[in-house]
């Protein structure tokens, strides 16, 4: 055979160490091809010689293939004992145990297993109950955190508004108190002025009343004096007429 058994064994060992699951193949020796028998015909000497050489070559190939199969089986058993995460260096050390060296493959016709098998398409694992519970708890924690931040912001904003309102309320109360004090002071001032005017008016009224009383008394006294004088004169004239015995005339003396 033209294939190198050591190259095949080394390539298969590297493939078995690299693959996650090692595939074990059993290789059995092929039966040697039966030489066609020709009945009723004698063979020529050159046919016998060629048949003998063919049988010898087939026998040698079968022996080589059998030895290669044993070595390959030993290599596969050694590679299967390795762990899944071993590297190509570990495979070469295992080959050293069985007396093989890692050689570079140069025969293009050698059957070399694919060391890079196609990866299966990733499938999305079904979420388990624990993962779903964890996701729900994480989502709930995030939601609670957002709600806590919203509540904190709301409280801070309301506190700012309340503090601003308190400051404005204090300012308004101060302005109101100032206006009330100013109005009260003005009213008291006007009231004092009115009291003074009232006092002056009362005094003037009292003076006027006293003056009127005095004038009235004077006028009454003067009129009373005039009345007394006239009554006395009438009495005097009446006494005179009575003394003379003369009747008074219709024309008044006054």
UniProtKB/TrEMBL annotation:
Residues 41-50 have a biased composition (Basic and acidic residues). Residues 145-250 form the Remorin C-terminal domain. Residues 180-222 form a coiled coil. Residues 28-58, 110-131 are annotated as: Disordered. Keywords: Coiled coil. Belongs to the remorin family. This is Remorin C-terminal domain-containing protein. InterPro entries: Remorin_C (IPR005516). Residues 115-125 have a biased composition (Pro residues).
